[in-house]
Write a structure and sequence with these properties.
The chain contains five helices and five strands; from the N terminus they run E-H-E-H-E-H-E-H-E-H. By secondary structure, the chain is of the alpha/beta class. It has a single domain, classed as 3-Layer(aba) Sandwich (Rossmann fold), CATH 3.40.50. A five-stranded parallel beta sheet has the order 2-1-3-4-5, with helices on both faces. Helix 4 links the parallel strand 4 and strand 5. The radius of gyration is 12 Å and the shape is globular. The termini are close together.
Length: 118
């Protein structure tokens, strides 16, 4: 099962709480970044199994960034989208992004992430 995670979110408080939750459930958080370009660079260098990706980033949506992450040569993580909003607010954008799935931030657990992964 995938175990290493890169957290991509522009809110430091969420990154900190997500790290604590995921590490308590057996994941190894290998990095935290707050924007799309840093996410691409960190994915290339850290090769995480999973990228936990916020839908609402400052300069690029998580949906668009997901497509870019999945196009990286040699580093193809599984992407799980997160948001403070519900999945129904995004309709088909989640499926069209290529992400493994979506977890509302308020419901984030290691089990919720694991249930979406191969």
């Amino acid at each position: 099962m995938p175990k290493t995670v890169l957290i991509v979110d522009d809110h430091p408080s969420f990154r900190s709480s997500a790290r604590a939750v995921l590490e308590a459930d057996g994941f190894e958080v290998v990095g935290e970044v707050d924007n799309g370009e840093s996410a691409l660079a960190a994915t290339r260098s850290l090769h995480p199994d999973v990228v936990l990706l916020d839908v609402q980033l400052p300069h690029e949506t998580g949906f668009a960034l997901c497509v870019r992450l999945l196009d990286l040569n040699g580093a193809t993580p599984q992407v799980v989208l997160v948001s403070s909003r519900d999945a129904c607010d995004y309709g088909e954008l989640i499926a069209a992004s290529g992400a493994k799935g979506f977890v509302p931030k308020a419901e984030l657990t290691g089990e919720a992430v694991s249930s979406l992964l191969e």
